[in-house]
Amino acid sequence: MGLLSWLVFGALVGWIASHLMGTKRGGLLKYIILGLLGSFIGGTIASMLGLGSVGSFDIESFVIAMIGAILLIAVLRKL
Question: Cα–chain-centroid distance for residue 3?
Fold first, then answer.
């Protein structure tokens, strides 16, 4: 995926994860950062478990990134 695709993917994942977790405050930059970090975390965990990776703009990558973003929000809430 190109840079623009990653930004759109990150924004979409971050926005949906924020709404699912009840942290709706924030702007586009927050959503992009959350989505990209979630993609990294989810992709790393999924790769270690042999479940897949985040390498393209498809449903599998979206679900993995969403799980990573939700985990990130949960950890940040605990801190």
Answer: 15
